[in-house]
Structures are given as C-alpha cells and as structure tokens.
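Sanity check. The docking grid for guanine depends on where the pocket ends up, so I'm generating a full predicted complex first rather than guessing from homology. Inputs follow.
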Amino acid sequence: MASIIDGKAIAAQVEAEVAASGAALLRDHGIQAGLAVVLVGEDPASRIYVRRKIAQTRKAGMLSIEHRLPAETSEADLLSLIEALNVDPTVHGILVQLPLPPQIDANRVLDRIDPMKDVDGFHPVNVGRLSTGTGGLIPCTPLGCMMLLDTVISDFRGMKAVVIGKSNIVGKPVAMLLLERECTVTVTHIHTRGLPEIVRGADIVVVAAGCPGLVRGNWVKPDAIVIDVGINRIEGPDGQPTLVGDAAFGELGHARAITPVPGGVGPMTIACLLRNTMDAASRHATVR
Ligand code: GUN
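Predicted complex below; grid placement will be based on this.
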C-alpha cells in the first residue's frame, strides 16, 4: 500500500520550528518578524487563502500587517503601497496575493517588491537565484513539495522526475529544485503529447495542472512517489462540494507514497511562507 505523506503534520512541525526561531530572534535581537499581506479585490478563493495566512502568521508569534484594497485600486496606488512596505523596518516579508484585478500588471508589481522581502520568491532576482542555485527566497509551494519529498527520499541523484504544469508559481520552480538535487527532470503540461507514457517513466511525479483526477492509476509505475499540488473544488457523489487533487487518489494504492488532498501540499505552502518570512527577518538582524 502506498504510504500517505501527512502534510498537515509536517507543516505543524515546520511552524513549530519557525515559532521557536521567532522567539529567539525577539529575545536575542529585539526583532519581531513581520509579514505584510496585500489583498486587492474580493476574489473568494484569495480571501480564504489570505485569512489562513494571517491566522497562521499570528499563531507563529509574528506580526501580521494586512492591507485590503478595493478591486478598483489603481496600479500606481498599489506600487506606492509596495514602496512604503519596502522601507518599513517592521515589515520583513511582503506578499501580494494573486491574481490581481485586470487593470494591474502583476509583473510590474512583483518587480517592485524588495527582493530581500519577497517571501513568495516571485521577483526576477529570486527566480534568477533559484535557476543558478545561488540562494535567494524560494517559492513556498515548491519548497513545501521538496520538504515532503525529503521525508521519503534520502538521495535524489539520478531519479526521473516528471513535473506536470509549467506555472511560474509551481511548475517551473519545482523543476529547478529537482534539477538542483540532480534528478533528471521532464517538464510537461496539459498540451504535452503522450503524457501518460512520459509519466509512466517517472520515479517522482509532481502534478500542478489544475485538472481534477488527471493522473490516473495506470499512468503511475509501482514505487513512484506522487506529489499532488492540485486543489479543485468539484461536486462530490452526494452533490456537496468537495476538494480533490490532480491525481486520482483512489487509483494510486500501488505507488510508493502519495500526498492527499486536502492535507498534503496545501498546509506546507503556509508553513514555508512563515519560514521564508523568518529567514528574511533573521537576515535583516544579521545585516543591520
Ligand atoms: N495565488 C495562488 N498561489 C499564490 C501564492 O503562492 N502566492 C501568492 N502571492 N498568490 C498566490
């Protein structure tokens, strides 16, 4: 039987470590790590994510700074807020929840965040650092995927990894992280021809395609590890809304290990956000 990777428990462990580091930072340097979260508009999923991020930030003993802006906010006003947060010494991490309303160019906004406070790891400087393996802040969901893989793999060298999804938030950065561990990485997406055959060759499958149940049981070889990043809200058999991943969980009993949805990758994203904020605050303490 496949072992189920318990993201909830692993995330709780990471959050406890972050809280302990935060307490030490406050005691030794008088610094309380601070995370500013910016939400523009009323996107229901974004509101839920932001609420969770704020609650976990507080629970870890960090300062949470919230900016909720109306959907009609101009790009210029958002850029002014970013500039103010960049120079605010109580703010060590800045997160602008995506997507942004259509009148705002998300790339222009992300480019304006101080790379040292870019706890999402989306600034081009951090993207470049990741691709050259030279440090920087790493995007939270890919970092969480690697932490989950670390619980079942001790040596990644030479393993065949297939990533399904090519987003800047998950697919591309997780491919870079797997490559850094010396996996042989194939990046695919929903237009890839012969996808099932490619996935059948994988020792590690990371799926972030936004397609419920895309990865079927007969796509996955025995002993493969499946990391399911998908969070899809669909109608369940009882007619009630239910959350499912991008892999057909019930068909993957022959795999070596799999992540559940919910309770797999999801909790790791917030834990890694807190860890990145703590790293940014600790760096601030050492470079002052
Ligand atoms: N929207 C969906 N995922 C993310 C994320 O990881 N960070 C931000 N800022 N917005 C998102």
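Relevant for the grid: Residues 140-267 form a domain with the Rossmann fold fold (CATH 3.40.50.720).
Also worth noting: The two ends are 52 Å apart (CA to CA).
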